[in-house]
Design goal:
- By secondary structure, the protein is an alpha/beta fold.
- The chain has a single domain (2-255), classed as Metallo-beta-lactamase, Chain A, CATH 3.60.15.10.
- 29% of the residues lie in helices and 28% in strands.
- It is built from nine helices and 14 strands.
- It has helices spanning 32-41, 59-62, 65-71, 80-90, 150-155, 170-175, 180-187, 195-205, 225-236; strands at 2-7, 14-19, 22-26, 49-53, 75-79, 99-102, 108-110, 113-119, 128-134, 137-142, 161-165, 212-216, 242-245, 252-255.
- The strands form two sheets. Strands 6-5-4-3-2-1-14 form a seven-stranded mixed β-sheet. A seven-stranded mixed β-sheet has the order 7-8-9-10-11-12-13.
- Strand 8 and strand 9 (128-134) form a beta hairpin.
- Helix 8 (195-205) packs parallel to helix 9 (225-236).
- The longest helix is centred in the last third of the chain and has 12 residues, at 225-236.
- The chain is globular.
- InterPro entries: Metallo-B-lactamas, RibonucZ/Hydroxyglut_hydro, WalJ/YycJ-like.
């Protein structure tokens, strides 16, 4: 199994999981052209993408959906509420024959992959993260959550690879130039995860099985890669876990497998 962060940040998000000649995308907040180009840069074949899973309707996660519906045959995996919210926000219609209905807390089989959406605290219609299990390996992609709930922690235990939000440094955000309402939204319990909250959650879910952690959705205005890395390293020091940072413009690819 291969994982790739094609883009991660406030300007667009897209993750890819590939195995056995097929790829599942999680979110599509960058253009279809960029998705294809970045897959190819990483040595992954764009023609192997078969489905797109949507976490929620915010534009930095779904901006390419209209073009994807017109120019590909990819299936769209989303909850009923997210489908409705995305169709309204993007002015598109997801054909019923291309829609795979997801439901938070209900695992589904996608050609032998176990795909489990689970609920997140975020200011969207029905936000979810995804835990994927295949070939004895398990990973999760978890961004856009305001605080680390016990439900989220339950689904992040016993993983091989964890992609986890480290959106902002609280002091940088409070002292920064964002307008007060936006600061309040980000800091709220349905906003985004800070470095400190990320580290708290990482400490709760760490297990000896964990081999790779990717910090994702870093704010370019309210965080610094060194601050996010330091917060995670404090938790992971003395463990065999390899720590990586996903970027907005520079794609990242990692092979992963079970312990």
């Amino acid at each position: 199994m291969h994982y790739a962060a094609l883009a991660s940040g406030s300007k667009g998000n897209c993750h890819a999981l590939s195995e056995g000649g097929r790829t599942l995308l999680i979110d599509a907040g960058i253009s279809l052209r960029q998705i294809r180009q970045r897959l190819e840069v990483l040595g992954l074949r764009a023609d192997e993408v078969q489905a797109l899973a949507l976490t929620h309707e915010h534009s930095d996660h779904v901006a390419a959906l209209g073009v994807i519906l017109r120019r590909t045959t990819w299936a769209i995996l989303a909850t009923r509420e997210t489908r409705q919210a995305v169709e309204w926000a993007q002015g598109v219609q997801i054909p019923t024959e291309r829609w795979i209905e997801a439901e938070a807390g209900r695992a589904m089989d996608w050609g032998g992959w176990r795909v489990l959406p689970f609920a997140l605290p975020h200011d969207a219609a029905d936000p979810v993260a995804f835990r994927i299990e295949t070939g004895g390996g398990a990973c999760a992609v978890v961004t856009d959550l305001g605080h680390p709930t016990e439900l989220v922690a339950d689904h992040l235990r016993d993983l091989d690879l964890l992609v986890l939000e480290a959106n902002h440094d609280v002091d940088m955000l409070r002292e920064g130039t964002y307008p007060p309402p936006l600061k309040a939204r980000i800091l709220s319990r349905v906003g985004h995860l800070s470095n400190a909250a990320m580290a708290e959650l990482l400490a709760r879910v760490y297990s000896p099985r964990l081999r790779q952690v990717v910090l994702a959705h870093l704010s370019e205005s309210n965080n610094h890669p060194d601050l996010a890395r330091f917060a995670a390293e404090e938790v992971l020091r003395g463990t065999p876990v390899a720590l990586h940072l996903a970027h907005q413009r520079q794609p990242l690819a990692l092979p992963w497998a079970s312990h």
